[in-house]
């Protein structure tokens, strides 16, 4: 189900922040770039945001500002840079970041499961775990998903990306696209899930920090 959205105009009014503040916070990484969603309206193009997430984030930013935190301190709190973070499978397992099923699939395919995983690999594991827990992918299909993530996620580096899991006539495949990109398939194909990897990374940051 698509998240309820709020327009930029309504967001500025309801939070009493200025246009300048909003985009300054975006440049500092306090509000993720892929939360700025351009949509066509009857008046032309307009920017929308996932309502619940952006309102919660702005409330947190304002509360920290009230406590005299700097923008850098707020950025570190709400979106810590974990790009250099690495974790072993044992650490991931002990912290319960993903399910045993997802870890087992990873270790089954990994050439060396003893080496620490970089943050992007942990995000991939988390995305796989989401599909397994929801039942949208079987264990066999999870291997397909993991292959797609392993081969393609590094190419996106810091760019927002979505994992799309598709099933067609009993066969499944997975692909990565830029977040928000429109992808069309033939009628026989069914999009089983679309996972925003930036959101997966953000959720992980909150659990790891």
Describe this structure in words.
This protein has 9 helices and 8 strands. It is globular. A hairpin with a 2-residue loop joins strand 2 and strand 3 (44-50). It is α+β, with helices and mostly antiparallel strands and 209 residues long.
In brief:
The chain is an alpha+beta fold and 209 residues long. It is 49% helix and 21% strand.
Q: What are the defining features of this structure?
A:
three-stranded antiparallel beta sheet, single chain, alpha+beta, 209 residues, 9 helices
- Largest sheet features: 3 strands, antiparallel
Structural class: alpha+beta
| Fraction in helix | 40-55%
Uncertain residue segments: none
What does the average pLDDT come to?
Answer: 85
Number of strands: 8
Q: Termini distance?
A: 29 Å
Q: In percent terms, what proportion of residues is strand?
A: 15-25%
Query: What order do the SSEs take from the amino end to the carboxyl end, as H and E?
Result: EHHEEHHEHHEHHEEEH
